[in-house]
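Now for one record.
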Amino acid sequence: MKNIILSADGDQLVYSVPDVVADNLEKYCLEFCNKWIQTDPHAEKYRFHGLICYDERDFIDYLNQWRFPSEPSVYITNLGPIDSDIPIPEKYKDCPSFNF
């Protein structure tokens, strides 16, 4: 398991995810929001009158329920807002990140 940083124009949240997800974070995030959310019947709850609404927690739920149920991703910590002047702590500085 490796750490990643996810956000949805708000706080930066650190999660521990399967290595393959961390190593290919953009691929999995884009698959989630451009394919799965748009077309999968299990993602119907994210679609409202032609609009789509989701955040990083929904991505983690997707990983845990549909992609890697035997390797659950878990929340680690909140690093604060994206636009904060507070630097990312050294131990998370090199983590892959994605903003939904």
User: Anything to note?
Assistant: The chain is about 30% helix and 30% strand.
